[in-house]
Structures are given as C-alpha cells and as structure tokens.
Amino acid sequence: MSIDVSEFCVMFAEAAEQPDGSITVATIFREIDGWDSVTLLGVLAAIDDRYGASLSASDIESVSSVGEVAELVSTRASR
Amino acid sequence: MDAAVGAGATVLATGRDGIRLQAVAARQLPGRVRVQTIIADLSQDEGRARLAEECPILDGIVLAAGRLDLRPIRMLDRDALHRSMSGTLDIMLLPLQALMSARKIADSGSVVWVGSVAGSIGAAGHGAYGGAKAAVEAISRTLAVEVCARGIRSNVVCPAEVDTPMLRSVPERGSALQHDRRYLLGPGRPADVAASIVFLLSDAARWITGTTLCVDGGFTASRR
To answer: Are B75 and A42 an interchain contact pair (Cβ–Cβ within 8 Å)?
Structure first.
C-alpha cells in the first residue's frame, strides 16, 4: 500500500519530537538531534499506530534515511 | 518444559499455537507420554473455560506469557496500555483464576510466575510491560498469603534479557546483548531460566513462598 511521503515525514517529526518541517526523506534518522533508543521506540510505535506496520529490529538496522523507512512501511502498511 | 520432564514431571502444555505445541510435545521420547497438550486461546473466556474443564488436577503451574509492546510512556495511550496489560497480566492471571475456581490446583502445589527485571528497573519503552510484570510480583505475594493454608506456594522468577525470538525483535538489543558488560555472567539462555522454574516447582523449594528469584546473570546487581 503506498503511503503519502510528506505525511510520513510530518508523523516522523512529531514522533521524534522534532520541529515541524524539519524532517525530510533525505534525513538520516540516526543523526537527528538527540536520537537514541527511546526516540526509535517512539517512532516505531507511531508507525504501528498510524500504518498498522510493525517494523523489526533488523528492518531498522538495514536502513539509514527517513525515505527508506517510508519505503519499508509502504510494503507493510495495512491502513 | 524440557527441564520439567527431565526432572520427572508429567507436563501439560497449553496455548493457542497448536502447531508449536505439537512440535514441542513431539520432541519428547516416544512411548513415554510425559507431555500432553491442550490447545486453547487463553485470552478468551471460552479458551480459559475449556482449559479449566479439560485440565487434570495440577501439582504445579507455570504462568509464562507476555506481550513485549515497547512504547515510550508519552505514547502510551489508553488502547496501547490496555493491549499491553491484557497481553501480559490478564493472560497469566485469568487462566490461573479459572483453574483455581475449578479446583484444579492441588494442595501443596506450586505456582510459578514468569516476571521480568523490567518490573523493578527503569528500561526505556517498558512502561506497560514492566508495570504488568511488577503487578505480577504483588499478586504472587498476595496469592502466597491466601493459599498457604492449603500448602500451595506462589513465587516469581524474574529473568533479564534472554536469547529468544521475543528479544531478537527488540531494536538494538538483540545484537548488543553479547557485549553488554552489565551481564556479569554473559548472555543467558532459556534453559537457565527453566532450571529456576523447575526448582521452585519442586519439593526442594518447599519452604519458599511469596518471593521473587532474580535470574539475570548479575544484571540488576551490576554497577558497570
């Protein structure tokens, strides 16, 4: 199921507690200010709530950018 | 389960995954019927009622279930909280309640709950899971008081992170575990936890009730 990428970035920014508009598909999520394991858990929870997609540890370990996460989510999204 | 059968017990295994149950039961020696199974969805009234009806009288019971939904507390809304609690606490307590109500726990029996160190340390994302596991410890202590007249004991085993499919799904923990020096004795295995459960089920633990056995490779004691 394809997802709206700009909406994904807005959701990501909110989940990662970053300013509106600060996240784009090119953003390397591990370099986000203050990024740590708690941030990651928040983003994964937000993705599950919004898209019904449960990403695994190895999924996340295999990608670097927000855009790549969006692509993974679009292959798993159920809503 | 292997540990219990190895110690000479007849084991009844239950859960909703029939395929996995049969596979585990099939691993025992053929001809020695030491593992029986009842396929039941313990999250449903029907499943619990059927278990309570079909179950023989038990000398021991191990309550081992949990739903590891990691989520920061700032995102733990009512639905997420209830899902997590019901998947961890209800799923252990309600089947026990059904069995006790049906008088399927023998006098001098032993109840062992699988808790978690997450119930007594702060671990990011573990608010609901840790909360449920901490609740288990309080409930077990209460149960110990309520059933002592029948010689029934209740105790909790608290593992830390053990190499299981559940742990491997946790981002950044599965692979980091090997090198985490807070585990004074290195990584733990399911058999390490099983041995403690079998001990608490056995007569060797006859003077132990209302307590928590921390099986964590030294994790909670370490200051590294």
So the answer is: yes
